[in-house]
Amino acid sequence: TALQEYEGTLFIVSHDRYLINKLADRIYWLTPEGAVSYKGSYDSFLEQRKIQQEREPSKKAQSSKGAVAYQQRKVQQASVRKQKAQIRKIENRIEELDNLTNLLNAQLSSPEIASDYEKAMDLTHQLETAKNENDRLMEEWETLSQAVEGT
User: Fold this and answer.
1) Which of 36, 43, 97, 149 is most exposed by smallest CB count within 10 Å?
2) Domains of the chain: which residue ranges?
3) pLDDT score, position 150
4) What is the pTM of this model?
5) Which residues 6+ apart lie within 8 Å of 93 measured at CB?
6) CA–CA dist 28, 37 (Å, integer)
7) Distance between CA atoms of 121 and 69, rounded to whole angstroms?
8) Which CATH entry fits the domain spanning 61-150: 1.10.287, 1.25.40, 2.60.40, 3.30.750?
9) What are the C-alpha distances in Å from 150 to residues 6, 74, 80?
10) Rounded-to-integer distance, Cα 149 and Cα 39, Å
């Protein structure tokens, strides 16, 4: 054809691989790092690229490993944030229970309550319930605090 017989330089940009393979004796491969020149036909360029890709560790594999590691970090960070929020809730509840315990102890020591057996028993039961919940929350707080410190 006329293009094959032309002795000057042709700069062809095409998606037609057959046309490129027939006319080109040099291929310029455009990458983010810049243009790379390959001497030969399009088929020889493809062979050289395949050999080069087999030698290099797969950038996609490295990229996917990085993406997986990123996702794992994000999941772990979210977990730590949830644990810290739970710790704050527990600390607030423990403070409420401490205030309640102090109030109940003050009421139990008052002379009016000491003379009323039923009221004293009710306050004692409330005090015991508050202490049990406080103990349970302290254990949960300790477990969560250790988990957060370990990350």
Assistant:
1) 149
2) 2-56, 61-150
3) 81
4) 0.55
5) 133, 137
6) 5
7) 58
8) 1.10.287
9) 72, 16, 10
10) 59
Helix (H) or strand (E) holding 97: helix 59-108
pLDDT given for residue 84 in this prediction: 95
Q: Which two tokens stand for residue 12?
A: 């062809």
CA atoms within 13 A of residue 20's CA, in its CB half-sphere: 19
If you search the block for the tokens 């004293």, which residue do you land on? 120
Question: What are the pLDDT tens digits along the chain (151 aa)?
Answer: 788 888 888 888 888 888 888 888 898 888 888 888 889 888 998 998 888 877 776 666 666 777 788 889 999 999 999 999 999 999 999 999 999 999 999 999 998 887 888 999 999 999 999 999 999 999 999 999 998 888 6
Distance from C-alpha of 57 to C-alpha of 64, rounded to nearest angstrom: 12
Distance CA 112, CA 26 (A): 104
Give the residue carrying structure tokens 């002795």: 7
The answer to whether 145 touches 87, Cβ cutoff 8 Å, is yes
